[in-house]
Amino acid sequence: MRRSRNPDQAKSANIAAVDVVRLSKALGDHLRTQILAVLAQNSFAVLELCSIFDKPQPALSHHLKKLADAGLVNRRQEGTSVFYQRAHAEDPLTQAAFACIDSQTLAGELLHNVQQIYQQRVQRSAHFFAHQADALAQQTALICAPEVYINTVLDCLRNHSHLPVHNALEIGPGNGALMLALAPMCKRITGIDNAAEMLSEARKNLHHLKNVTLLEQDFSTMQDTQRFDFIAAAMVLHHIPAPAEFFKQARALMKDQSLLVETDMTDYKVADISLAEYGRKEISMAEAEMPALMSLRNTYMDQQPLAGAKIIGCIHMTIQTAVLIETLTALGAEVRWSSCNIFSTQDHAAAAMAQSGVPVFAWKGETEEEYEWCIQQTILKDGKPWDANLLLDDGGDLTQIIHNEYPQMLKTIHGISEETTTGVHRLLEMMREDQLKVPAINVNDAITKSKNDNRYGCRHSLNDAVKRATDMLMAGKRALVVGYGDVGKGSAQSLRQEGMIVRVSEIDPICAMQACMDGYEVVSAYKNGINTGRTEDIDMRLMQDTDLIVTCTGNADVCDAAMLQTIKSGAVVCNIGHFDNEIDTAYMRKNWRWDKVKDQVHQIFRSDDRFDYIVLLSEGRLVNLGNATGHPSRIMDGSFANQVLAQMHLFEQAWADQPENQRAPITVEVLPKKLDEEVAALMVKGFGGVVTQLTDTQAKYIGVTTEGPFKPESYKY
């Protein structure tokens, strides 16, 4: 009689078979088993593994991805480096595989290379402390105030008050601040450091304490003849070459029922790291709305086209930007990030990036000084300029700072990709004045950016921002849109679809004609359109009949002091251009009283009359990001897909690596049309659309190829 098989047994057998196949594929290469053997020793950065195995990064990254896909290694980002460590083996098959690998002796050359990496880590730390002793406390305080980690350590002691502390040890006491706080709680406390410069700082602050001993010694050389009740390692673990060995050695020095507290430094500054989980959920939702960007990530991940790229990014730190950042890092890049506007950061997005290991310096509501400090932190790493080779900018501030303050960095930078109109204007001005020292790609004027982000994005986000800020009914009221480029067109549509009566002001006859054809009245705030800057030349009828002014030009003082003095009381004034100089906020700060209603909403009183005020949104900065959440993910999908392709193109060209006499001329070029069409096709596919393909006959008839580009450069769309 034939016995039927138990379904659970069959299922288990199928799972086991799948596991065998998974492991067989992953371990079928001898190099991968060696990688797993080395990762049993410690976790290593990708470039460190390249040195250990003497392999180029693309080849090694390929093997690491295979191991990660099989669940045999874990990947984590620390600062700008990606580290790998061996995964914990939970199933018997993986445990057996790891046991077999570990039973083999590592080749002497590999062991030697591992020790070389450890020595390099020690040397980097020694160099850091030797040169940063005087400024370390100040630099640390910028990231984490000393009282924060000191209080964390003290809280741990208080929570374990049943464990008496007679003999304490601090590893790396810095300037002695923690030892000073611990001294009253301990009978004896020892501090050790292998950097004489750091011990000198500590001795200055602790010389008066009788129960404190400071030793110039490496922790690894300590003997276990003395035991400690409490060991503190405050912000030093990232300088220890083999952290796993450190914990083993620490355990040997500890008494039974003793306490070890380790706190560490983070390479970020955000408003609230506890928002990371919330940010991660929104990032996941945004990924589903960004099909072009995710398609690029999936297509190129195996190839790692940005392996070795080091990108400094300065662009609004939003949820959508988080998807861009994680696409760049998934393709192999290391990044450091700040926001390009003091009000545009979404704090939960910044927190999610910081928690994932991205060095990000951004929070909503920065001061001007904090804004510049954040950019500086992306430029600097360990107190000195980072060896970046690409810039991703929005507005040109990052580009200007590096050209003016860190020109030595330009020797290794392959190029810049610029996101917005204002930044492109600054690049072109720099090029005319022979100040631009590296090539740039104008992402702003790609069709999938300018027509999507600038026009359709503003159509979605302007009315959203005004309603969130003021809660006013917009229908039936009158708006003046200053500027009718792509941003102005989208803004006018945004207000019209709310039922507003929209007028347009323009200096360009062609744009003015387009506004007329689109059904808008073209007007000027000045009589006969002659801008004298004097209140007597203002068109008072227009100003007293306007409830909302929106500036969208990228130019300065387009809503000037005379207009602000004469606009009707209670009118709302805002800007959707990049900088805050479109509205003369300097005049308002100098002459009028500001009263904050809520974040990014101010009543500006022009006199003592309580009804004589205007409402200013986002202090004259980007209203759609200051008072709302900016453009939808589907809109930003095109812009950020362009940024990824631009960064890949610049990195592939490797302009800075070419001999100077063979380098291409420095230019500001629009993203190639072929790449623009590639992004558009991915976006259409994301909508579920189908693009019709030309036949060979049709393509020949209009003089193009069936693959495109389909329009000449002169085509205006």
Automatic annotation (TrEMBL):
- Which GO molecular-function terms appear in the entry? adenosylhomocysteinase activity; DNA-binding transcription factor activity; S-adenosylmethionine-dependent methyltransferase activity
Q: Which GO terms describe its cellular component?
A: cytosol
Cofactor(s) it depends on: NAD(+)
| GO biological process terms, semicolon-separated | one-carbon metabolic process; S-adenosylmethionine cycle
Task: Quote the record's cofactor note.
Answer: Binds 1 NAD(+) per subunit.
Is-annotated flag, keyword Nuclease?
A: no
Q: Does the keyword NAD apply?
A: yes
According to the lineage, what is the superkingdom? Eukaryota
Keyword terms of this UniProt record: Cytoplasm, Hydrolase, NAD, One-carbon metabolism
State the InterPro entries in the record.
Answer: Adenosylhomocyst_ase-like_sf, Adenosylhomocysteinase-like, Ado_hCys_hydrolase_NAD-bd, ArsR-like_HTH, HTH_ArsR_DNA-bd_dom, Methyltransf_11, NAD(P)-bd_dom_sf, S-Ado-L-homoCys_hydrolase_CS
Q: Which PANTHER family does the UniProt entry name for this protein? A: ADENOSYLHOMOCYSTEINASE (PTHR23420)
Name of the protein in question: Adenosylhomocysteinase
Species this chain originates from: Symbiodinium necroappetens
Q: Which gene encodes it?
A: ahcY
